[in-house]
Write a structure and sequence with these properties.
The protein is an alpha/beta fold. The chain has a 7-stranded parallel β-sheet, with helices on both faces. The chain is globular. It starts with 8 loop residues before the first strand and ends in a 9-residue tail after the last strand.
């Protein structure tokens, strides 16, 4: 199916590994020009090289701390200068630490607020005016199923990703008349470095092996397994496409049926 992404310019944040990298690679495979950013210069270079090799397309990459508004501004300006347009922006950031409420410091809350919520604000402020000029755009936030069903010991994520959802739903209302759709994609348990970290913590706390934790996680999913990054990337690519022109203001779970709510 042709998604109409050829020639589009897509920004993907936190794309050096995990879900962000899978999304960037999917965009490149579908013919989009891709710009990626991440904190680790080494990991970012590895990701850009791998995407170029697997897709045959050029990739613009720049080291970036998404908690800095000025850095996000400079990155978006560099992408605009390089490609002359920005059609798609996928906001994404590493998950805040896994802790119980009384173990979370005020500094943890402030850091998570900047990383999870404000990074989405910074990107939205930069790309929406550019999309408005062309009367077309796709703003997509990678959040978590925790916005639909809180996950134990992920207080920071449960709280602040819900804030991202409120932001994106509001932007969908405001910018829909401008030809811009705004949606969220909510990954469930997916095979990424982040899930490895959480599994290690759970294994240590429960006195079990990492493999047993993955078995337990999969047992809670109707499909009987955790997800693959490329499965989420396919949904993001669809939302960024011409085919999804009437999908706006949604939070779509890609979780194998893990969340049991009706909506």
């Amino acid at each position: 199916m042709d998604l109409g992404l050829k020639g589009r310019v897509a920004i993907v944040a936190a794309a050096s590994k995990g879900l962000g990298r899978a999304v960037a690679e999917e965009f490149a495979r579908d013919g989009a020009e891709v710009a990626i950013c991440a904190r680790s210069a080494a990991n970012l270079k590895n990701a850009a090289d791998a995407i170029r090799k697997s897709t045959g397309r050029q990739v613009f990459s720049q080291e970036l701390d998404v908690t800095r508004a000025d850095a996000v501004h400079d990155f978006v300006a560099a992408v605009q200068k390089r490609f002359g347009r920005i059609d798609i922006c996928v906001t994404n950031a590493g998950g805040p630490p896994s802790k119980k409420f009384l173990d979370i410091s005020l500094e943890d809350w402030r850091n998570a607020f900047e990383l999870t919520l404000m990074s989405a604000v910074y990107f939205a402020r930069e790309v929406l005016p550019l999309m408005r000029q062309r009367h077309w755009g796709r703003l997509i936030a990678i959040t978590s199923v925790s916005v639909k069903q809180p996950i134990d010991n992920l207080l920071l994520s449960n709280s602040l990703r819900a804030g991202v959802t409120g932001l994106m739903r509001s932007l969908a209302n405001e910018f829909g008349p401008e030809g811009i759709t705004v949606n969220c994609v909510c990954p469930g348990y997916t095979l990424t470095e982040r899930l490895d970290e959480l599994a290690e913590i759970q294994a240590k706390n429960a006195g079990l092996s990492r493999e047993k934790i993955f078995e337990r996680l999969g047992a809670h999913v109707p499909l009987g397994r955790v997800g693959k990054p490329e499965e989420l990337a396919a949904v993001v690519a669809f939302l960024a496409s011409e085919r999804a022109s009437y999908v706006n203001g949604c939070s779509i779970a890609v979780d194998g049926g893990y969340v049991k709510s009706l909506l």
